[in-house]
Structure formats: C-alpha cells, structure tokens
Amino acid sequence: MPDQPATLRRDTIDADPDMATLLAARPHLRMDALDGLLFEGVPLQHIARETGTPVWVTGAGTLRARYRRLAEAMREAGLGARIHYAIKANDHLAVLRVLAAEGAGADVVSGGELMRAVEAGIAPERIVFSGVGKTAEEMRLALRLGIGQLNLESAEELSLLSGIAEAMGAEARVALRVNPDVDALTHAKISTGKAGDKFGIAYADAAALYARAAALPGIVPLGFAVHIGSQIATPAPFRAAFERIAALVARVRESGHAVRMVDCGGGLGISYRDEAEGSPRAFAGAIAATLGGLGLDLAIEPGRWLVGPSGVLLTRVIRVKQDGGAPPFVVLDSAMNDLLRPSLYEAWHGVVPLSAADAAGPAAPAHLVGPVCETGDTLARHRTLPLLTDGAAVAILDTGAYGAVMSSTYNARPLAAQVLVDGERWAVIRPRQPVEALWRDESVPDWIGPASPASPAE
C-alpha cells in the first residue's frame, strides 16, 4: 500500500534519505563492519547465501516489540481495546502465531483467512470477519466456528445473514460498518471511508439499519465498526471519524437500542521514506477523546503498522545495464511479481546493500528494475546508491506488509522463500517454490493429444 498520494510523489534524488538515516530510524537493522547488514542479530548475507534470493525475511522480535508498543499505548489511554490483527497484511502462519502469543486476535476478510487464523491457534471468539463480499458459504463457516463478530457492510448482507443464522438455529453477533464520509488524506486506492467508496453503510442510513438489525431473527447487534483507510499519519482523520461514530452511538441509544461496542478499525501509517510514522499514542488519544467516555467495549484492527517494518526482501543483482549517459538499470532477481507495491502504487522502499563494503562505496543514481517483461517492473527510480556490481545483494526495506502476501507467479516465476529471524536464530518458514509446482495441478483434456516432441531447427 502506498506511502503517499501519487500526486505528491517525489522522484528527485535529493529528497531521499541516505542509508545512515534509514538505518537510524529502524533499530532492528544495523550495519556491522564485518557481518554486514544485521536484522535483529542475524547477518542477512548469511541468509541470502544459504537460501538464495529473492527471499523474504520477517523479524519475530520486531513484531513483538511493535505489538507491545501499540498495546501499551491503548493501556496508557485507559482503553483496554482488543487488538485484532488485520491478517491481509501478512498471513503467514508463523507471523500469526507470534502475534497470537502476544494476545492478538484476527481481523479476516475471507473464508481462507478465517481458516488460516484458526490454524494458527487464534480462538474463533477472538476473530472478526470484515469485508463487503462475504458469501453465504463464508457466513455459514463463521457461524459454525462461533467467531466473535461479523462486520456487516450493507442492508443486503444483513438480510442474507439473518436468513442463514435462523436456518442454522444460530445467533450472529454483528457490528454495522459505517462509512463516515471522512477523507483519510491518503492514497485514493486505499481510502475506504469517503462517500463513493465501496466500503460500509452510508452514515445517514446506519441508525435505521441498526434498528432493523435488532428486530431480525438470528441477529445480535453489538455496535458499529469504522475503518477509513490505510497509511494514515496524523490523528485528525481518525478523530473526525470517531466523532461521527460517537454521535451515532448517542442517537441509537436515545432511540432505545443498546450499543455495546465500537470497532475502530486500523490504518495507522509507517515511515517508508522520511515521512512521520503514525503514533500509537496519538491514535489511542483520538479514540479516548471521542469514544472513551461512552462505556463501550473497544477494538482496533492494525495491520501494516505491526508488520510493515518487520520485514525485508533480499535480492541480488543479475547485471548492470548501462544506458548511455543516463543512470544505469540495475537488474535484480526480484520483480513486480514478488513486490507489487512500487508498480501498483509508485510506492517508495528504502534499499540498503547487505555488504558493509558495498554500502561504503561511492554512490551514484540508478534505476532498480526486475526481469519481468513489463516496463512497470521497476522497484526504484533515480535512487542514489553505492555502485552495485553483478552478484551484489541488497535489502528492500519495510516489505513486511503487502509484500509476500501479494506475490504472484507471473512470467512463470516461482514464489520466493520466506525466513523468520528471532534474535540470533533464523529458520526457513516457506521453501522456495519448485518451478515444477507451477504446472503440477494443471491438466490437458484428452482430446488435445500428447505433447509433440520439439522439432529440430532446420
């Protein structure tokens, strides 16, 4: 997900932070004179040599530290808010288990994510099911498992769930997700709380629909949910949204209906380049100031803020392609099929060599590109970096969120390996996909006939 609107995107060389600045802002990374770039206590050069590249690396210790910082901010504000990790950001079982051990629940948006959360050991009652397109089958699964809450996003969805719950003899605990028509001041593709966005129930319709929910069989209305977007750096948009939700709670209670909880969503931003990171304390303060005195159970749904800085992508230079007098193209063995964000959102990610010797070399502008047959397969443009030669390895920073989880096998490129570091320990948590696996589940109808042997060149 992008760090800023495309209209504000900066391509100038002098706007980029240098490597010392990037590392200073990321205490889990350190450049050692002998071992090169360390992630927690593990030399990344060692991982790159042992597993090959590209390879995703996630830091368990970094995940724990960020979760605890967020949880402490909620406690300091006197909120006691439940934390449901938005697993769409990074759904690997190892990541889910690290966070579950810290006390996190899960926010899921598909039946597959729901089953992943359960497989990772997250109790169903600690799972919230969000999203605009829940199918009847997914609703039945959620009710069979007894999940804690379904966040409903339309009158149509409410009617469907009521019928399913009544037929099953079950009770569906629901919150109505409200679209507060608040501009999150983020990229248009990740804004979710403005009128015209596909998410949520129109604010003007929410009170009446809540009353309807209270009268429907099989439905137990708990309260409201709101999520206005992603990569939000300041508390003002949060506060504006929560003020509208607080007014809605008061209105519904005045009409005689109980409102027990509000799910405040997520969206807290991180620093990819040199922008300010979203503050957990400011986020908690916005919740406390608007909803804290209403006697509500509260919940939040962080994703990117927890896992984004907790991951890097290691990749190696295939070759350096000179382009006359223009900056050269540094062709990497990772591509847009691995890390989609730069191609999709023009997103900016820091790049740091793994070798201390490479990092200390003379710097010059370069374009970092992948081998995929698309001009859009560009990972960084006009980036001032040490001169990289064939075989040099680099880390692409802050790829823990919307990195591996958005990967594909486009151009018949197997999925990269994944590694978890934890202090000075590390382990492969997903091996590199064998190329044969790309067609293992494919079949050819009998009428097509057998493959013909290749004809020799004439």
Automatic annotation (TrEMBL):
Domain Orn/DAP/Arg decarboxylase 2 N-terminal: 63-307
Positions of modified residues (N6-(pyridoxal phosphate)lysine): 88
Enzyme's top EC category: lyase
Residues making up the signal peptide according to the UniProt record: none
Domain Orn/DAP/Arg decarboxylase 2 C-terminal residues, every copy: 309-400
Keywords recorded for this protein, A-Z: Amino-acid biosynthesis, Decarboxylase, Lyase, Lysine biosynthesis, Pyridoxal phosphate
Alphabetical list of InterPro entries matching this protein: Ala_racemase/Decarboxylase_C, DAP_deCOOHase_LysA, De-COase2_C, De-COase2_CS, De-COase2_N, De-COase2_pyr-phos_BS, Orn/DAP/Arg_de-COase, PLP-binding_barrel
Gene3D superfamilies reported for this sequence: Alanine racemase (3.20.20.10), Lyase, Ornithine Decarboxylase, Chain A, domain 1 (2.40.37.10)
E.C. numbers: 4.1.1.20
Claim: Amino-acid biosynthesis is one of the keywords in the record: yes
A GO term, aspect molecular function: diaminopimelate decarboxylase activity
Cofactor dependence: pyridoxal 5'-phosphate
Keyword hit for Lyase: yes
Purpose: Specifically catalyzes the decarboxylation of meso-diaminopimelate (meso-DAP) to L-lysine.
The protein's assembly and partners: Homodimer.
Homology family: Belongs to the Orn/Lys/Arg decarboxylase class-II family. LysA subfamily.
Entry protein name: Diaminopimelate decarboxylase
Gene source species: Endosaccharibacter trunci
Gene symbol of the encoding locus: lysA
